Amino acid sequence: TGWAGGKCEISCHCKKQACDRSGHCNNGVPCSQGWFALACQYSDLGAVALQLDLALKDNDDSTCS
């Protein structure tokens, strides 16, 4: 579990490992914290930064901050 794609090449980063066979999150399940974009394949480095600046990170894929 935790892998998807034709050759199991996509790591599932959806909450509760709720990925379909193509790696997309099932039924509107969001990405796990620290992951974003199509099939949750991009890591948000701001989520693991040692110093957080909340003005620069809102965890909303639809905004630029």
Structure write-up:
The chain is an all-beta fold. Helix content is 0%, strand content 12%. The strands form two sheets. Strands 1-2 form a two-stranded antiparallel sheet. Strands 3-4 form a two-stranded antiparallel ribbon. Strand 3 and strand 4 form a beta hairpin. The protein is elongated, with a radius of gyration of 13 Å. It starts with a strand and ends in a 22-residue tail after the last strand.
Briefly say what this structure is.
The protein is mainly beta and about 60 residues long.
Main attributes?
65 residues; mainly beta; two-stranded antiparallel sheet; two-stranded antiparallel ribbon
Strand order of the largest sheet: 1-2
Number of domains: 1
Residues in β-strands, percent: 5-15%
Give the CA-CA distance, first to last residue: 33 Å
Share in helix: under 10%
Question: What spatial form do the alpha-carbon principal axes imply?
Answer: elongated
Mean of pLDDT: 82
List the helices and strands and how they pair.
Elements: E1 3-4, E2 10-11, E3 35-36, E4 42-43
Antiparallel strand pairs: 1-2, 3-4
